[in-house]
Amino acid sequence: MDYYSNQISRLIEEFSRLPGIGAKSAQRLAFHIINLPKDQVENFAKALVDARNNVKYCEQCCTLTDRELCPICSNKDRDQKTIMVVETPRDLAAYEKTGKYNGVYHVLHGAISPMLGIGPSDIRLKELIERLQGDVNEVIIATNSSLEGETTAMYISKLIKPVGIKVSRIASGVPVGGDLEYIDEVTLLRALEGRTEL
Ligand code: ZN
Fold first, then answer.
1. Protein residues with C-beta less than 5 angstroms from the ion ligand 1
2. How far apart are the CA of 58 and the centre of ligand 1, in A?
3. Fewest CB within a 10 Å sphere: which of 72, 131, 156, 162?
4. What is the distance in A from the centroid of ligand 1 to the CA of 149?
5. Interval 137-163: pLDDT, tens
6. Alpha-carbon gap, residue 116 to 22, rounded angstroms
7. Residue 82: its H or E element
């Protein structure tokens, strides 16, 4: 099946390993890269390697960053006492795009799923509980409205309530099963404003 020379085949193979990239797209991308100016390809390769080498978890909110504290956690103008709990850094980005949320975040990197064998200790819950020892006014749970997201929301609210911190859940303007990152900004804002205390 090696119609192309070895190095082209290798490049196609690397692309086809990426999520959502089928055989045809992999070929298209590989040939696109080969036709780019050399310096552009070098910049691209460097960006990949630098990101992989330097990106780590924020020490406070666990989002991905190349610093100890991400730009949101280190921003003194943000309300550090309001924590929005999301499943992924992409969800955080979706709320940031609205430009209307001024609190900080906590990124779980997943959701509890008994079906997939993902338990509370497999996501960044311990780090959230540790943060609650500090000065916190409200925890807004903005996990997805999937079964896993709801399970996680219930679990978190049960953990936090005894601590006496206000816990709220974003409104169900977010469609059931909907991934936060695909929802438009107006819907996200409505969901945030219409949040209910748990
Ligand atoms: Zn952070």
1. 58, 60-61, 70, 73
2. 5
3. 162
4. 21
5. 999 999 988 889 999 999 999 999 888
6. 25
7. strand 79-86
